[in-house]
Amino acid sequence: MTTGPDLRPPSQHPYPAGEAPKQRNTVGIIALITALVGAIFAMIPGALILAWVLLPAAFVLSIVSLVLKNQKRGQGIAALIISIIGTVIGVIVFFAVVATSIDEAFNDEPQIAAPDEADAAVEDDGADQGEEGSRDNPLALGTTVTEGDWEVTVNSVDLDATDAVLAENTLNDEPDEGHSYITANVTATYLGSEPSGDTPSGIRVEYVTPDGNSFDSTAEMVIVPDYFNRSETLYEGASATGNFGVQVPIDDVENGQILLSPTMFGDGVFFETQ
Length: 274
Description:
By secondary structure, the chain is an alpha+beta fold. Helices cover 30% and strands 20% of the residues. The chain has five helices and nine strands; from the N terminus they run αααβαββαββββββ.
């Protein structure tokens, strides 16, 4: 049968004259999927780096999809909106993570464990003297302190270590008049799980006199016997033990205290010297 010309009025034609049907927008679909995945990663702190890659890519793809001719624009519009919202979420999560990290770094209070159960019997007496580990209530030697990824303790203190320090290295200077060298033996254990390990470089040791004057172990460039190697890399569960040397006033030296800071930005805790 011969088909004649289409005599239907223009209003009954499937498409207006000169207008082709809109095709599926492949770029828009890719942009939408990318935006959705990026927005999901933006909510996960550990996957933020992936969100920073996917969301900008989705934004660019969505713009491209909207300028293509004879292409459906729904997916592109949705991708554009989701990529913007995902970026806002990512920024919020990023600053929340940074704020939490800063708070933990500067406000992580040391956890103190008594060296043995016998100390629990005198807990009430210590409560009247001030917070445990404070200058008014120093810790006993051997007490374990945990802060961040480090567990540390002062094992012993030699209040008359001048001869030993001078004999260790001929380059060590004589202490100033009225002063002597003391050493504090410290053990540090790494509790973190970084595959590359970490070094106890943030540990600080000071001697505080009964009058409140502080003397830092880094003030004098001396090599002490069995010195503590702060550059040694330790892996999870590993420990390092060694001495820190400090030049201090001789007068009333036995009544001073050792201030040990497990981390560089920690407040530190006080230990008895004997």
